[in-house]
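To close the section, here is one more complete example, presented without commentary so you can practise reading it yourself. The ligand is manganese (II) ion.
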Amino acid sequence: MTSTIRINRERLWRTLMELKEIGGYDDEATGLRGVRRLALTDADAEARRRCVQWMTEAGLDVRVDRIGNVYATRPGRDRTLPCVLMGSHIDTVATGGAFDGTLGVLGGIEVMRTLNDAGVETLRDVEVGFFTEEEGVRFGIDMLGSAVTAGRIPLDQAHKLTDADGKTVEEELLRIGFDGDAHERRPIPYAYIECHIEQGPLLADAGVDVGIVEGVQSISWQRLIVAGEAAHAGTTPIESRHDAGLVAAAVVVELRRMCDSGEFGRLRATVGTFDIGAGQTNVIPHRATITVDLRNPDDKLMTAAEQHLADYVEALAQAHGVTTTWERMAKTAVVPFDAAIQDVLAATADDLGLPYVRAMSGAGHDAQEIAAICPTAMVFVAGEHGGISHTPREYSNPDACGNGTDVLANAVLRLAQQP
Ligand code: HGY
Ligand code: MN
Ligand code: MN
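Output:
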């Protein structure tokens, strides 16, 4: 067995703390510094350039593909062999923290520096990359760059997606100078490992820093547009209203009932955007738009939940005399990760003397897309404050990040030496 390597934790932490200030903002709700680095914005562009600089300083060959994914290669002895790929994303939600995605990218760059410092020559190329628009918050489809790489979303469809201001992905890639020319259907890797904070309570509850991820639960994103009729708040009798706001609110309440009922297994539902326009105190809302994010570790129960919701909304539309339109934003099935790669991670954690738990991922990740093209798994790192994430309260400590990245480093090294 190759001797173990240990990454430089201070150096990794310094890069995490530096990157968090690119798109950093003072979050009123928490009083903390948050990160707002939506995909292809100026902040994302600056963070991309900083990561490319770190990659170049580590002596890596950097390339950009046509959806803006960035890969950096550390050549191995036999360049004809498929590479071992690490990666994640550096775009964040609008009220993000310092670790979601960035840990997997900066951790991968730190692995490269550590291999350099140790003078290790690998048999296979090792690559680290970051994918475009993993969060989906700006252009409406999550894991966009990795889904294009895996062939699930055509490049043309991805390029044409627009943000709230009508700007397309293609225009924004051009504007920030990341309209690369490498083909997005990249050479198939030998294996892919993503290091990522868990973003939940499982590892912290188990008292461990490290998790080995068995797979990702299914995700369904839909937009519901309700069109009713504006009318006077005082004179319009209750029974003759077509209140779009009421129908949308009823959907929110029903979603929670569906989750609490257990009828749909371990369903999780979130209405993260609720828009009834400017609104006027004394006018019945004529229009409401909500997004519905469903998660379920069981595909059949996910389908049942979507069907129930569609029937429920149809009945509401009849009862309240409104029209309802569903728009599909994103849908991914449960994705199991490769057992052999999980075993490499487990053996690596054992060698490092790091206790771990195995867990399904509640969040979506680029790894679930890349799993379609090569053997893939993830290593989780515990978060604090119950693993809370997608908020400036997101936090993991230097040791947990260091332990998770040591697992990444040594698992990648094992795989990169395999003929
Ligand atoms: O939504 C998710 O699960 C991920 O953070 N993109
Ligand atoms: Mn993420
Ligand atoms: Mn996220």
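Once you have examined the tokens, check your reading against these statements. The first helix runs from residue 9 to 20. Residues 89, 100-101, 134, 196, 365 surround manganese (II) ion (ligand 2) (CB under 6 Å).
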